[in-house]
Design a protein that fits this description.
The chain is α+β, with helices and mostly antiparallel strands. It has 7 helices and 18 strands.
Length: 390
C-alpha cells in the first residue's frame, strides 16, 4: 500500500517538474477542509534584509496527516524576476468546503480573497512598494525598511479600512468580497510558482510542532522571519496575540481533505499544485523505506534466496540515500561559505529537488520489480475430466 501511494505522489511530482511554471499556473488544485483556519495573528514585520526583497505575508496552511492547521510565517523573499510582485494565497469557501488557492509571482498583484494580511496587503493590491524600471521602491509608511542601507524608498500614507483578522473568504464569518474585473484579468497573466526557498520555508513550518494551531491556540511563537527558513535568532518575530478566539473543531477527523481540480477560469491560479504538501526537496526529508516482509513462497531455499536479494537491495538503497543526503548538505555548507546570491541558491535547490525525486522514484520502482519477481509461481488449474460418452 505504501509503495502504491508513493508511486502516485512521485508521478505527480515528477510530472510537475516536466511542465513549465507558466503552464502549471493555468491549473488550480486545492485542499478542501470542512472548517476554516484560525484568525490571522497580530505581529510586527521584521526588517527588510535588502534591495529586491518583497514581503510575503504569513498564512495558515493545512496538514492532511495531522488534520490540523499550521502557521507559515511571513518572510521577505527576493523577487524571481524584475518587475514581478507576490500575490498571497488564500482560503475560500465553495462547493461546501474551504479550498486553498496558492500564491504566485506575476507582473501585477491579483485576487487574494480580500484578506487583509497587513503590511501593504489590505485586501486588494499591494501598497508596500512598487517597481521603477529595475529597482523596487519601498513605502516606508507600511514596510519596515532601514533607510541607512536601503535608499530607494518613498512615503505614501495608506488608510486601511479593512482591519479584520479573518483569514478566509466566504462561508460562515468569512470575508464578503469578490474580485474586480482587473484582478480577474491579472489572474490570466504569466505567473511563476513559489520559488524553492518558499517551498522549503513551508516545509520547515510544517515540521515545527509549535506552529500548529492546536498547540499555539492561534498565537504562533514564530509569526515572521527576516529570511525564508530562518526560524531561529534575533530576526524571528513572535506573535503579540492571536487574531481572535481559537475554537478547535469538534470532530477533527471528520474532514474531507482530498485534492480536487478546479475548473473555474476566473479564479487566481494555483501554480505548482498544493502548497501544503510540496514535493520532496532534499534526501533528508524522506524517511527510509520499510523493510519488506520476509518472502513466503512455501519453498525454504527460494525464500532464503529472495530474502538475500531483499537485504542487498535494502542496504544499497540506504547507502545511496545517505550518500545523496551528505552531498546535498555539503552543497548547503559550500553555499554558506561562498555567501552565494539567491539566484545561485535557487539553482542548487532545484537540482536537489530533482535529484531527490529521481532517487525516490528509482528506489520505488526497484522495490516493486523485486516484489513482482518474488511472487510465488501460479499453479496451473487441474485438467478438466473428459466428458463421458453417452
Amino acid at each position: 500500500m505504501r509503495i502504491a501511494r508513493l508511486i502516485c505522489s512521485l508521478l505527480l511530482a515528477v510530472g510537475s517538474l516536466a511542465i513549465p511554471a507558466q503552464s502549471r499556473a493555468q491549473v488550480a488544485v486545492g485542499i478542501s477542509v470542512q472548517f476554516g483556519p484560525p484568525a490571522l495573528p497580530v505581529y510586527e514585520q521584521p526588517l527588510c534584509p535588502g534591495d529586491g526583497y518583497i514581503w510575503t505575508p504569513g498564512y495558515w496552511a493545512w496538514d492532511r496527516e495531522d488534520e490540523d492547521y499550521y502557521w507559515v510565517p511571513g518572510t521577505w523573499v527576493e523577487a524571481p524576476e524584475v518587475g514581478f510582485l507576490w500575490t498571497p494565497g488564500y482560503w475560500g469557501w465553495e462547493r461546501g468546503a474551504f479550498f486553498f488557492h496558492e500564491g504566485y509571482w506575476g507582473p501585477h498583484v491579483g485576487w487574494y480573497g480580500g484578506i487583509s494580511y497587513g503590511f501593504g496587503y489590505f485586501g486588494h493590491g499591494y501598497e508596500g512598494g512598487r517597481w521603477d524600471h529595475d529597482r523596487f521602491y519601498y513605502n516606508r509608511s507600511v514596510t519596515n525598511v532601514n533607510i541607512t542601507e536601503v535608499h530607494n524608498v518613498y512615503n505614501t500614507t495608506i488608510i486601511n479600512r479593512n482591519e479584520t483578522r479573518v483569514s478566509y473568504n466566504g462561508g460562515d464569518g468569512g470575508i464578503r468580497e469578490r474580485p474586480s474585473r482587473e484582478e480577474e484579468s491579472f489572474s490570466r497573466e504569466r505567473h511563476i510558482a513559489p520559488v524553492s526557498v518558499q517551498h522549503r520555508h513551508t516545509q520547515e513550518a510544517r515540521g515545527n510542532r509549535e506552529l500548529r494551531a492546536s498547540v499555539n491556540q492561534g498565537r504562533p511563537p514564530i509569526a515572521a522571519t527576516q529570511r525564508p527558513g530562518s526560524f531561529r535568532g534575533s530576526a524571528v518575530v513572535p506573535a503579540r496575540e492571536a487574531g481572535g478566539r481559537y475554537e478547535p473543531p469538534a470532530n477533527r477527523r471528520g474532514n474531507n481533505n482530498a485534492a480536487r481540480p478546479d475548473n473555474n477560469p476566473n479564479r487566481p491560479p494555483n501554480p505548482g499544485g498544493n502548497a501544503n504538501r510540496p514535493p520532496f526537496a532534499h534526501a533528508k526529508e524522506i524517511t527510509p523505506h520499510d523493510r519488506p516482509a520476509p518472502p513466503n513462497t512455501g519453498n525454504p531455499k527460494l525464500d532464503q534466496k529472495y530474502g538475500q536479494q531483499q537485504d542487498r537491495l535494502y542496504s544499497k538503497q540506504g547507502q545511496e540515500h545517505q550518500k545523496l543526503q551528505q552531498k546535498q548538505e555539503q552543497d548547503h555548507q559550500r553555499l554558506a561559505q561562498q555567501n552565494a546570491n539567491e539566484a545561485r541558491r535557487q539553482q542548487v535547490e532545484q537540482r536537489h529537488q530533482q535529484q531527490t525525486q529521481q532517487m525516490e522514484q528509482r528506489h520505488t520502482q526497484q522495490q516493486q520489480r523485486t516484489q513482482e519477481r518474488q511472487q510465488p509461481p501460479r499453479q496451473n488449474p487441474p485438467p478438466k475430466p473428459p466428458k463421458e460418452k453417452p
